[in-house]
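In the previous lecture we treated proteins in isolation. Real proteins rarely work alone, and many bind small molecules. This record shows how such a complex is specified: first the sequence, then the SMILES for adenosine-5'-triphosphate.
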Amino acid sequence: MMRVVELTKSFGGYTAVNGVNFTVADGEVRAIIGPNGAGKTTLFHLLSGHLKPTRGQVLLDGVEIGGRAPHHIARRGVSRAFQTTNIFPSFTVFDNVLVSVLAHHRRQFHFWGRRDAEMVKRVLNILEMVHLADAKDQLASTLAHGDQRALEVAIALGSEPRVLLLDEPTAGMSPYETQEMIRLLQHVIADRGLTVILSEHDMDVVFGLAHRITVIEAGSVLAEGTPEEIRNNPDVIRAYLGEAQ
Ligand SMILES: Nc1ncnc2c1ncn2[C@@H]1O[C@H](COP(=O)(O)OP(=O)(O)OP(=O)(O)O)[C@@H](O)[C@H]1O
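The predicted 3D structure, ligand included, written as tokens:
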């Protein structure tokens, strides 16, 4: 589904992402982990089009998308949630998701205009999936932190992505909110059959969601494998898990 080949990003003389290769299969949940400053955020910016690669390729179903504009990549089916917050705080929860659904269908968003029944159904379906149906008429700004993150997932789902990029989905969350988010993502991923690439520091989240894990250190891939292989990899324990666990 998504493949990166020798992906490299340099800022002046500093190479933040250095010759990274990996392939994420259809329906796979891949976690990207690594120490602070390893290059995870830069890698996500390269996948979503927010940065142009210095060298290398990003392929979606074999088609090169590396260096294309974020809206182009989004239109091809890659959505990104978190770190790039898309919430309109003064809109209701419902309207936030409606904007995303309508944008995906490239319809004009008339705020007081006729609401297509099919679109409304889609929005309600998404809100039910992320457990926000009861809060649909609330202003987004009044939601609790954990619910705002759930709304971000809902907005990302509005564009019916095939690949969902999640930047640290549980950053800043309480242990309770973190467990809720893991459950929510497990449910959404299974229901939609999504392909997911996520970066995360919390190992409970990583081991609770990922089918495979890629470990990045100093811009390069240190290891790749199943959660079990990564947990037992001596290089990974030395570079990362030793300090994180
Ligand atoms: N625009 C930029 N210009 C110069 N250097 C940059 C830029 N963006 C990132 N870097 C550098 O690239 C390196 C990798 O940063 P990046 O944010 O990708 O790491 P990260 O793995 O996401 O870290 P964290 O886990 O702390 O979020 C860092 O040393 C950072 O200072």
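Summary for your notes: The first strand starts at residue 2 and ends at 11. DSSP finds nine helices and ten strands in the chain.
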